[in-house]
Amino acid sequence: MAMAWVWTIMVALSLVFGLCTGRIEAVGTAALQGAEAAVELCLSMAGIICLWTGVMEIMSRCGLTEKLAKCFRPLLRRLLPRASGDTETLAAVSANLSANLLGLGNAATPLGIRAARRMARGTEGIASDELCRLVVLNTASIQLLPTTVAGVRAACGCAAPFDILPAVWLSSVLSVTAGLLMARLLGRLWRT
Amino acid sequence: MDLSSLIVPVLLAATAVYALSKKVDVYGALTAGAGEGLSVTVRILPALVGLLAAVYMFRASGAMDWFAQLLAPVLEVLGIPPETAALLLVRPVSGSGALAVGSDLIKTYGPDSYLGRVAAVMLGSTETTFYTIAVYFGAAGITKTRYTIPAALTADLAGFMAAAFSVRLFFGT
Q1: Cβ-count burial of A69 within 10 angstroms (0-12 exposed, 13-18 middle, 19+ buried)?
Q2: CA distance B25 to B80
Q3: Which of A2, A178, B5, B14 has the greatest count of CB atoms below 10 A from its CB?
Q4: What is residue B4's predicted lDDT score, i.e. its pLDDT?
Q5: 8 Å CB contact between A114 and A92
Q6: pLDDT confidence of residue A1
């Protein structure tokens, strides 16, 4: 529903601003141009997205996801000490993280949900500190190869669409760290 | 030679060789995954049509400039270019909406411009926060989310600031 509001407000404001600035004619043309641009964009980035989801599928089939998951366990034991006591939750969380890293959103979400459900047991609808941390981890993007964005850049005529990778990794790390630090800080202040 | 030009060929070849050594049907997996990618593209198309129409209208009417100007002083303090104001507002709410606004920025300013790169890094290093929170807590039956939303939005804001900073760091303005 949130998007219904966003869309309506944007269109209504465009009408009001268009009338005020005398650019209403351009606003009408722009709506049609926007729709056309959307189809063009989708078509031109479809190839690169398909190629990379294909590569990700190979990675997950040859056991790379599980390998990554194993690397995470020591880290997760520190981040989510109570949840890690349960081997099945630990397995779900580490698989969730490695799927996120590989950009397999469709695989990551069900795994994360399984972990979240196990962690929510007996909490009577109140999120525990560890569950908050798990969700914050999932709301911050940790994808190693942002393939959709690379697709957009390639569609706009970029010769090296992945040249932003170091910048993306640095921002992701800073963003996740900030989120987890804030969670830790608020967790101390926000006693249930 | 630029190191980033190695990423694509090395990743493709290394994945294929490793997977084949594990007796994975490399080509079958590739095409199966590509099919899934196609359905992703098809799924975002309707949303992209609706949103880009609205974004183009919003920009043509002058409303975008007005909002960017309104937010500019705050964003400048944080080191975020004010042209990305709309992207910041949409990003936590809608994935396809952010993709539409972001790709519009990349297209308008060029993929290799400072702004184009910042928009791309912002898209690549943040997530659709509210959607994720709704899905996880909904599935787990949590009604009291405590401090999750402020913490997750802090991560988003840090991501936006870091995007502007890291593009300056690696590419200059």
Answers
A1: buried
A2: 46
A3: A178
A4: 63
A5: yes
A6: 57
Positions in chain A whose pLDDT score sits under 50: none
A126 forms beta bridges with B144
Is residue A120 helix, strand or coil?
coil
Mutate to test the interface with A, among B25, B40, B61 (most CBs of A within 10 A): B61
CA-closest candidate to residue A177, choices A132, A133, A114: A133
| Total count of domains within chain B | 1
Task: Let me know if residue B58 belongs to a domain.
Answer: yes
CA distance A33 to B53: 7
CA gap B24, A57 in Å, rounded: 11
pTM: 0.84
ipTM for the complex? 0.84
DSSP letter for A125, please: T
Contacts of A116 in chain B (CB under 8 A): 136-137, 139-140, 142
- Residue B22, in any domain of the structure: no
Question: What is chain B written as a DSSP string?
Answer: --THHHHHHHHHHHHHHHHHHTT--HHHHHHHHHHHHHHHHHHHHHHHHHHHHHHHHHHHTTHHHHHHHHHHHHHHHHT--GGGHHHHHHTTT-HHHHHHHHHHHHHHH-TTSHHHHHHHHHHHH---HHHHHHHHHHHHT--B-TTHHHHHHHHHHHHHHHHHHHHHHHH--
Supply the mean pLDDT for chain A.
Answer: 88
What spatial distance separates the first Cα and last Cα of chain B, rounded to whole Å?
22
Residue B137 CA to residue B135 CA, distance in Å, equals: 6
Q: Which domain holds residue B142?
A: 47-171
Query: Which residues, including other chains, have CB under 8 Å from residue B98's CB and lie 6 or more apart?
Result: B87, B90, B91, B123, B128
Q: How far apart are CA A44 and CA A169, in angstroms?
A: 25
**Nearest beta carbon to residue A162 from set B4, B112, B136:** B4
